[in-house]
Amino acid sequence: MRVAVFSAKPYDREFLEVANRAAGSPHRFEWIVAHLDSRSALQAAGAEAACLFVNDQADAAALATLQSQGTRLIALRCAGFNNVDLLAAAELGIAVGRVPSYAPEAVAEHAAALVLSLSRRMHRAYARVREGNFALDGLLGLDLHGRTVGIVGTGQIGLAFARIMAGFGCRILAHDPAPDSGAADRIGLSYAPLAAVFAEADILSLHCPLMPETRRLIDAEALARMKRGAMLINTSRGAMLDTQAVIAALKSGHLGHLGLDVYEEEAGLFFEDLSASVLQDDVFARLLTFPNVLITGHQGFFTRGAMQAIAETTIANLQAFVSGGQPLHPVALPAGGGIRGGTIEPSR
Ligand code: NAI
Q1: Ligand 1, pocket residues at CB < 6 Å
Q2: What confidence tens digit (pLDDT) does each residue in 216-234 have?
Q3: Fewer CB within a 10 Å sphere, N or C end of the chain?
């Protein structure tokens, strides 16, 4: 099958080519650097499938162009499908497949890396030693052993993070509307109301999906409930934080450390090399000025194991579509109506 791969990076090419070869090279890829939109869709002329990532906009206009040129399948190489207009896809007869789960440990380990870097000030120590500055002032660390780690969302990633932090001797306090009592017993975590998790956590890490109830979950009120000097980690979705309130809490010293792998306005920043351009986002620029803030550009998923899993599942989706007309992991139109792109925000 001819597959147009949008937002194609060298690493996408590397892993998809290996997975395709392992399946006997049934697919021919066209690598399109641009994100999908209604104009770039023209570059996929003749491709039966379009393979998309998180910043590709499969809105009704882009889908109509793709369909008019022969595309019958959208193969997402991510779990989230909030960037696809599912109703338009269904109307146009385009099937949609995704990668529902891949290496949750990768994201959990990245969250743990943020905790360790911040707690021992690794980001500052690294720069200092390279400059020949071996002074310790300002590098005083935080012991993890015996601290309380608050986890919001105990799905695949939240539980993997809980296991890691329990290994450091932390007490784990979690909140989830659908608690997993079996996992709680195995890991030794306790569930508590959200207010108690906010109040007791020395380190608070977010692992729930972005939904109307979790948008701005960490606002000025939530921050005020947190312990003075607490650490906040967000590897889930940027819009779960009220970033202005977080900046105010950092300025006052109430929030002690902040580790982010996601940012609400990341679509215009992350995944690209902007080092030669002037940063236009003043809120993001302010975050970068704090010595106790560490930001990575949505790389939690970016490990060899996770990339292999994404590529293999994508090939499996393509194969199933060729043989049976449906991807292996289809995205169904929700009962009671369609999703216009951007109205729901499931996990990535
Ligand atoms: P999951 O679906 O396995 O778990 C999500 C958990 O959140 C579930 O247990 C659910 O009951 C819980 N939840 C739902 N509403 C909640 C609420 N209001 N309060 C507390 N908990 C709530 O999802 P998974 O795979 O663990 O992913 C979690 C999040 O991680 C994703 O939604 C995504 O935003 C983010 N993610 C980030 C990546 C990165 O590269 N930084 C990569 C993959 C996912």
Answers
A1: 104, 107, 152-158, 175-178, 207-210, 213-214, 235-237, 261-262, 298, 300-301, 347-348
A2: 999 999 999 999 999 999 9
A3: N
